[in-house]
Amino acid sequence: MGRPSRAAERTEQIMQATGRCLRTYGLVGTTLERVAEESGLSRSHVRHYVGNRDDLLRSFATWLYTGYEAEFVRAVAESEARDKLPLTMDYLFGQGIMPTSDDDTIIRELVTAGLTDTSVRTILQGKYQEAVDTIGDALAAEYPTATPAALRSTAYGLWCLALGNSMIGDLGLPVASGGLVRTAADALLDQLALKTAAVAG
């Protein structure tokens, strides 16, 4: 494999710097000037490679979530049917989405940006929908006779539990680092199993 292009290297440099700025200064404080300073590039170089500030945030949202979920989505797609749900549960409630993570601060800032920037919102919606669809695929492999509605609602519930627990962890609440969220997730799976059995019966 050849060496990455100069543009790819510079873009990666800028994306890393943008993440550090969002974590340190928040959305309002993440300016092109600060990103340039953090990346070691000039402001004109930042504009050359990623455009204006709005373009920067949109590119960063795509960059972050591509790395954030791509490995999970690919792993579920490539795994055997019997392994899909255990892998998914480990990702959501084990080492994948940690109860406390530096990325949580960044993600909250992106969600804030998405409230007013339709492009950022569309990117986030697409990435979150991809995650929910992946969870649904794992559930379908485990519960092949479940109805689409039951699979969809359970997948969405598991995703919300994982994200909510990750965010709550930033507040230092003891429950976020315990087993309660996994207990709640298992309860959703139990409900899905009961619904599936009722339909089959």
UniProtKB/TrEMBL annotation:
Keywords: DNA-binding. Residues 31-50 bind DNA. InterPro entries: Homeodomain-like_sf, HTH_TetR. Residues 8-68 form the HTH tetR-type domain. The keyword DNA-binding applies. GO terms for molecular function: DNA binding. This is Transcriptional regulator, TetR family. It comes from Cryptosporangium aurantiacum.
